[in-house]
Protein 1
Amino acid sequence: MMHMVQSKFIYLWTLIGAVGLQGCGQTHGLSENEPVPYGPVPTATQLNWHEMEMYCLIHFTPTTFQDKEWGYGDAPADLFNPEHFDADQVAEAAKSAGFKGLITVAKHHDGYCLWPTKTTDYNISQSPWQDGRGDMVKEFMEAAHHHGLQFGVYCSAWDRNHPEYGNEKYAEAYREQLRELYSNYGTLFTSWHDGANGGDGYYGGADEMRKIDRETYYGWEDKVWPITRELQPGAVVFSDVGPDVRWIGNEKGIAPETSWATFTPVGPDGGKAAPGHIDNRFLGTGQRDGKFWIPAECDVPLRPGWFYHASQDQQVKTPDELFAIYIQSVGRGAAFNLGLAPMPSGTLHPADVAALQGFGRKLSETFGRNLADGASFEASNIRSRNNRQFGPDNLLDTSRYTYWSTDDEVTAPELTVDLDGETTFDIIRLRENIKLGQRLDSVHVAMWDNNAWVPLASATSIGANRLIRLEQPVTAQRLRLRLFAPVAVALSDFGLFKEADAAVTTAAPADSGVSRANWRITASGADSSALRKAIDGRVETFWLSGEGKLPQHLTIDMREQQTVDGFGYLPRQDGNNAGMISRYRLESSIDGITWQAVAEGEFSNIVANPIEQHIRFTKPVSARYLRFTAIAVANATGARAAVSIAELTAYD
Ligand code: FUL
């Protein structure tokens, strides 16, 4: 009982910390005359997370061996048998790219635990790997620490294997799994949780659909987070709703141009929010007047999927693509969480390692030297009668917390920057001392050119880190910043950089499948020219059926008999989920009259990560006709739904 009371107290205290002890100065050691913090401020734990900026998430479970994105929970436990598992190779590759932490997926939705848990038999001790005596979470932790990386865990709340999923017994087992992970793997920087919760699964052989009440089932607020606070007080809790770090709302790794660290989680019904149960309109942008400091994380896999698929070996993101993601995540005050997917053998593919190394080189060559070093500044106002403590020279030191500040009544100051000679740059970096909150509304940068100030760039939501990437490099010697805030400003950093070229890597073009030029495609009641959008080779166009009764069928006549060993379904790419297919069936025929079943299953994680679903057949089929059936549509509740398809492809 004592124990419960105490952990409640710790939780309450942390909540207060998250809201910020505005004005009393205890959270960040205010010195004399410092401006009063504005709005919510980060906790010490969140500050550590902000400073990390980027880390990796490793997906490696029996699902890897099934070539799937979501395991159903029925894979034999001994399927998981990597022959050359090497956690060090993974950690080293992450380190080479400049990542500061590793999160291991200790358990994914398939329910298989990578550590010898006492809560279920479905765990690593059933694997032939190390004769069942191994502990993969431990190996990842040791490898992370060996390379100077912080460590974190993701333990999926949804468990498609556990027979008790849906009742209290499982909810308690889940909390026990967290206790085990929090107790035996050192200090964690994050406890990562996602919102995918409840649905069909194996569930110990029941093989059925189980729905849970996302708001109440796990006891997030009153039972789960208090365990985290008690056992891992230094870990930020990530989920789509926070409480410490929120999801950006997509799996592309990109934050919107304006993205505030402040946010008020609300449920879809206007009530309480919980993981997977949120009004998602403001996940990306945050809210200028949000009640809590809950900055965003941008997650995205290095390959199209979170798990390894040999079919995606040509689609590893290039260093330039990773750099663009970095600019749009870390450069917008969020964190960059990159998914790494070891192969069944237990190491990263050489293409992944090369991409990471190339990205790391590009980052250090770009940001290794601040081109503004040596500049002199002239500020329209310096706080406390030109007190040096608040002077603009603070902008060029490496501290994120020393800063230039103005008197309280000066909320639209100006700063002139005289660079040490003509300087060519295409990235501008700005940071605020976020211990004092997110104060700036906007910053406008101009350059002195032909005896006049010419507008160069502007930005909102500065916060922990803001990178403005110019469309092309400019050369200048004098710059001017105009800042706008509701209170005195607290700018801590000004940087100029020139993007380095990334040597390498043009990935070979992905397999585009068999020729579709002569295909004829039909569906009952569908307009044939609209239907062609499903096979026109243009990812941006899509076919959307009218609302109809599910299942809905679509028939393809390939016009000649050929061997096909897989097919692809690309969902619409316009950001709208309507009509995305979540369960499918594929049949083939030689004459268009007699049909044989070829494949049936789910398109996992399609809403959050709408990539091509590449389904490989267990054996190739020879066919002239294919019949594709949409059995279920994501987010559709009734028996009727519209169906959408950007591309349907067949592979040989
Ligand atoms: C999501 C999961 O459903 C995906 O499979 C993946 O693990 C991603 C990182 O989080 O919520």
Protein 2
Amino acid sequence: MELPAGLLIALQSANKVLVLTGAGMSAESGVPTFRDAQQGLWSKYKPEDLATPEAFRKNPQFVWDWYEQRRSMISKVLPHAGHTALAELARHFKAFSVVTQNVDGLHQLAGSMDVTELHGNIMRSVCSRTGKWIDNELIIGSTVRPPVSPHHPQGLARPDVVWFGEALPEQNFNHATGLAGDCDVCLSIGTSNLVQPAASLPFLALNSGAVVAEINPIPTRLGQLAHFSIRSTAVDALTAIVGQFRVG
Ligand code: OAD
């Protein structure tokens, strides 16, 4: 595919690149997005029944089982050529950071070294009372669902993901804010840009003078303001970028 020449020129001269990713980044690995009309998880399930602290308090087993299904599905998928392209591209810059809303760990699996998770990681569990991390070895094969927490007598294991109404891990979000305010190029890939505060990051990059490009087959509100809107999938756009990027 043909990329905007201006984007390649901006990348060519950039020192610091920030990549922001959402569920669309993992779509071509087979992980469903949340808001796509047909396949999106929130077209089939209500977030308030599954992704809130209230839902977990009301029906912990139902919520735990749903996340177990997603964990099982995610443990079988692999990073795609777009994830690999990002890991490869990183080698050419002084700083190349990935900030993701995804909880599947696919960037790390593809070899990206500098990854900040804003919404947690579905493969980890934490105590519902203390928030302390629970070693998977302690709960694997538990017949009780959710397993009891080793950290608190009334605690239960819950997925280490951020639910609606919960704050993002503060340190990670502050780090992401710093990166957005200080990058030369920002690529926003596969996110509807609807969930705050993550959605604010590309706008912060834009206001701080970065060249911003959106990669998404469907335009979002960022697309109208970004310098470049690439209407294609993550795999097509990122393999094209890595293929057309010239070193030196
Ligand atoms: P969404 O499901 O809201 O948006 C996914 C975006 O990816 C859409 O804009 C699609 O057009 C785009 N897309 C689909 N396939 C693509 C592809 N192959 N390549 C590139 N883009 C593609 O997902 P997010 O924006 O990530 O929160 O949603 C944000 C948060 O809402 C999630 O992290 C999750 C959810 O509730 C938590 O779980 C805390």
Protein 3
Amino acid sequence: MADFAIIGAGLAGISLAHKLKLAGHTCSVFEKSRGLGGRLATRRLDAWQADHGAQYFTATSPAFSSEVGRWLDKGWIKPWTVTPWLLTREHLGPSPDQQERFVGIPNMNAMVHGLAAGTQLYMKTRIDRLEADGDQWRLWDEHGEHYGNYDAVILTAPMAQSQALLPTEVINAAMIGSQTMTPTWAMALAFEQPTGIEADVVFVKDGIVSWAARDTAKPGRPQNYETWVLHFSPQWSANHLDASPDLLQQQVLEVLERLAKAALPNIYQSFSHRWLYARAASSEPVHQWHSASGIGLAGDWTQGNRIEDAWTSANSLAAILLKAYA
Ligand code: NAI
């Protein structure tokens, strides 16, 4: 049985820990923030909440679809049945499709919490150095504390952060040198009164904002205020990394006013969040396991940029590790 260290408590890290633990291995998960789930994120405020990271997820592969079935049975997620709308410069209208979409209940990270049960978690622990000790690894955090030794270390953080920890030979073998991730600004608002907007979900094309959704249209959300979440396009976000809350709010209100075709009610509260590493720009698969050094890579960015990709990366690395450490 092997001792694994996993860096990052997002869906990739936690589902990998879950699978390795089921097979009898020991796993410790290190996470720099206070919460589980990474970009599967929900913020709670005064009598309202909003999903400011991933908005929903879909399932395409049979393996992920059956995992989603298990999450449904556990009550961690529910289908989000909506008719999307499309907003372009000239047009606004429904854009119906057959896509099945899912959200966590009552928060986007509910399934990550479910899968993490019984896993050794080190929260608020930022690992900033890996030290080789024979054929094992010792981990050092930013305060000079050390952890381990571990037989293998799995990095799941967005690429730019993982790269800083990786030995050069692993970077070369994984061929990750040229991969980049693009940012996304998110803004969430709670209105004092209903907005009267007909659409619940709006894909925005060719705009500064790329997505607008009524968060209170998702199942299992508190209904005290009508809430909206908007995401800005990767291009605009990259060009306005230091955008002020006022600038963000002004852009958001322009879109919502177009959707409402009327003046909007007063805003009760709002917040913005910058996802510096929101989505991988390329979906070229990354080589996930470097056996000579005992270092693995997982995370959506190793295969694409969706929640399914995060889970698939953990599933495929788990298969490799269970063989390597049988
Ligand atoms: P999906 O298959 O529902 O949508 C993929 C893309 O197709 C959408 O972004 C949208 O541009 C378009 N689309 C889908 N249905 C449409 C409709 N009925 N009418 C018009 N356009 C439609 O979802 P998928 O691929 O599973 O991704 C989930 C969501 O997460 C997507 O919205 C995706 O863009 C978004 N995403 C956002 C990231 C960010 O950083 N903001 C990162 C990764 C994904």
